[in-house]
């Protein structure tokens, strides 16, 4: 029983709201210092340090930097104009633009929190000015940001690929269909709500073909970034890690020479934001790898996998149980941390029943993104509510229909492996 003390201690520290990274490291050190002291502490600390010395992990700071460069380079505004020209004339037009912009931004920033913060500052004030309720605006902004990490080059796609030892390229390609379905479900739900509340479109009539062409031409450099990254990896021009550096370079060049909004002085702020974002993510990953070392020594993933397999030999029932577990855990733990902790525990059982790890990865990522907009600890919920000054209770009331739409997509993806694996299989 004492071998499970670090796990119990971990969840106690989560409930006490101690930062995830500190909770993981402290729990693991309790095991190595007091429960199993057969390993020299110097060896444990060496593993703690060397766990960060991974070439694929370099992709994380690069793609975090992409999001920062994009916000200073005018790429966001060009995509906003293009999205508005496409769908701004519909009832509830700006809310639809919010969702479409998340899809376009997702291929560049890959971060839900970055997308939520950006849209809260750029698009949400315009929605409020046009008569949209503040809580509804916040709910749409947070819910649409769930799409960003599912579209390449989402940071969670990279992290899952590393945890599950699957191809980053396959994870990237598998993200497109789920992201499209999430956007479609949100837009249908928004259309129903907008019609009921008579939210006006942002345009009195559809944009002309010439106007759409003009906005599209302006957005081409920005839209080229995700496609250039995917094609470069597809044809072996660079690795996923190098793709991050390529994406940063492309964003910077476009900001300097095409949109001419990026300045040399902006790079001090960009580097500051990148270091802050990378530090948070990497500290959690290192803590999780150390905690995973403890679980491996105690064969806890094997025990949990055996228990799940004994509980059911149906992969459909297993996936339902895993979804329920992830949704519950996602209510209390930040999504990325939940994925890092639970993936090594659940993956052996999933593989034993013949579930494709890429399909499972998409299920996990969509699931934890939904957790990001639900109380009590949803990270996108807190980001949007703090920027827009919205009460959590008001936000929750408005986000319920949007969360239900995303849950319907999650169920569809869970039981339609062919749908998720269609593009990876095609390529």
UniProtKB/TrEMBL annotation:
InterPro entries according to UniProt: DctM (IPR010656), TRAP_DctM (IPR004681)
A GO MF label: transmembrane transporter activity
Domain of life: Bacteria
Pfam families to which the protein is assigned, alphabetical: DctM
The TRAP C4-dicarboxylate transport system permease DctM subunit domain, residue ranges: 8-417
Subcellular location per the Swiss-Prot or TrEMBL entry: Cell inner membrane
Membrane topology value: Multi-pass membrane protein
Membrane spanning residue stretches: 6-34, 55-75, 95-114, 134-164, 170-194, 215-237, 243-262, 274-296, 316-333, 399-423
Protein task: Part of the tripartite ATP-independent periplasmic (TRAP) transport system.
Subunit structure and binding partners: The complex comprises the extracytoplasmic solute receptor protein and the two transmembrane proteins.
UniProt-recorded name of the protein: TRAP transporter large permease protein
Organism: Sulfitobacter guttiformis
């Amino acid at each position: 029983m004492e071998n499970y003390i670090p796990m119990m201690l971990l969840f106690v520290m989560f409930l006490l709201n101690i930062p995830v990274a500190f909770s993981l490291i402290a729990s693991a050190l309790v095991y190595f210092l007091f429960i199993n002291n057969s390993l020299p502490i110097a060896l444990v600390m060496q593993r703690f340090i060397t766990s960060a010395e991974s070439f694929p992990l370099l992709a994380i700071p690069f793609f975090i930097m992409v999001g920062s460069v994009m916000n200073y380079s005018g790429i966001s505004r060009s995509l906003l104009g293009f999205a508005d020209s496409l769908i701004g004339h519909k009832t509830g037009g700006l809310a639809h633009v919010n969702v479409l912009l998340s899809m376009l931004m997702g291929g560049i920033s890959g971060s839900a929190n970055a997308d939520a913060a950006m849209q809260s500052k750029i698009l949400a004030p315009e929605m409020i000015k046009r008569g949209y309720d503040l809580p509804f605006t916040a709910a749409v902004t947070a819910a649409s940001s769930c799409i960003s990490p599912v579209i390449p080059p989402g940071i969670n796609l990279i992290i899952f690929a590393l945890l599950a030892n699957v191809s980053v390229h396959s994870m990237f390609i598998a993200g497109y269909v789920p992201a499209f379905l999430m956007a479609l479900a949100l837009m249908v739900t928004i259309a129903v709500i907008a019609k009921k509340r008579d939210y006006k479109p942002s345009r009195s009539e559809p944009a002309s073909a010439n106007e759409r062409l003009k906005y599209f031409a302006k957005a081409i450099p920005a839209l080229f970034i995700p496609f250039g990254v995917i094609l470069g990896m597809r044809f072996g021009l660079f690795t996923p890690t190098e793709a991050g550096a390529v994406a940063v370079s492309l964003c910077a060049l476009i900001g300097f020479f095409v949109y001419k909004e990026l300045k040399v002085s902006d790079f001090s702020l960009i580097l500051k934001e990148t270091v802050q974002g990378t530090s948070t993510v990497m500290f959690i990953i290192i803590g999780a790898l150390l905690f995973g070392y403890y679980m491996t020594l105690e064969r806890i993933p094997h025990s949990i996998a055996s228990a799940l397999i004994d509980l059911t030999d149906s992969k459909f029932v297993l996936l339902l149980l895993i979804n329920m577990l992830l949704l519950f855990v996602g209510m209390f733990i930040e999504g990325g941390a939940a994925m890092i902790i639970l993936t090594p525990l659940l993956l052996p059982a999933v593989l034993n029943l013949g579930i494709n790890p890429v399909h499972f990865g998409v299920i996990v990522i969509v699931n934890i993104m939904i957790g990001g907009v639900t109380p009590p600890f949803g990270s996108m919920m807190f980001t949007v509510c703090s920027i827009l000054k919205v009460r959590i209770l008001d936000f929750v009331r408005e986000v319920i229909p949007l969360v239900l739409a995303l849950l319907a997509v999650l169920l569809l993806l869970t039981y339609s492996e062919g749908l998720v694996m269609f593009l990876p299989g095609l390529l």
